[in-house]
Design the sequence.
């Protein structure tokens, strides 16, 4: 599915775009007038964490669940825990910031890394994204894995260090799995319809 045929949440539709027409997420840094997809802007990520703003559209996330996209073993573990009613909490921090349900469903469908099991994150990144003791489990260049999922969590915690913003997510409440991102299209369409009714 082409990225420009994926229905956009209203707040994503008004985001700045790159020369191809991709909406640029709120936490994506710019260099020389070009977005640096795959990297995270420290100041923008910190502002989103502090102000409870969606990392994709940069608008307020109301109190209640927040969403993020997970892959591989973590996606499978969350699904297994929810299926049997067992609590799940991953204490390892991540640099992946939360967002609205619609925004994360949309991001899954347009981001190559999030949407395909064999896609890989770029290997080169700014020093701020280099792994340290807290984030050594984040491996650039590694494939996403066989399973991806958009997961809703009751809430998030964050820490802002001198060179990065770290998140932990509390109590999963929804698990929307996919192998290929196109499988999320019905969920995105239903969520956009629900949002339209709320207006």
Sequence:
């Amino acid at each position: 599915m082409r990225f420009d045929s994926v229905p956009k949440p209203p707040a994503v539709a008004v985001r700045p775009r790159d020369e191809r027409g991709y909406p640029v997420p709120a936490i994506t840094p710019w260099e020389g007038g070009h977005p640096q997809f795959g990297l995270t802007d420290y100041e923008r990520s910190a502002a989103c964490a502090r102000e409870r703003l969606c990392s994709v559209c940069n608008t307020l996330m109301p109190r209640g669940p927040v969403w993020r996209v997970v892959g591989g073993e973590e996606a499978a573990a969350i699904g297994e825990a929810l299926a049997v009613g067992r609590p799940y909490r991953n204490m390892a921090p991540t640099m992946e910031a939360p967002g609205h349900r619609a925004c994360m469903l949309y991001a899954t469908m347009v981001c190559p890394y999030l949407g395909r099991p064999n896609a890989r994150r770029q290997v080169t990144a700014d020093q701020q994204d280099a792994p340290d003791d807290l984030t050594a489990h984040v491996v650039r260049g590694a494939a996403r894995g066989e399973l991806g999922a958009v997961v809703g969590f009751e809430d998030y915690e964050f820490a802002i260090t001198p060179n990065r913003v770290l998140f932990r997510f509390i109590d999963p409440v929804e698990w929307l799995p996919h192998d290929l991102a196109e499988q999320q299209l019905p969920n995105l369409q239903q969520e956009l319809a629900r949002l339209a009714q709320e207006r």
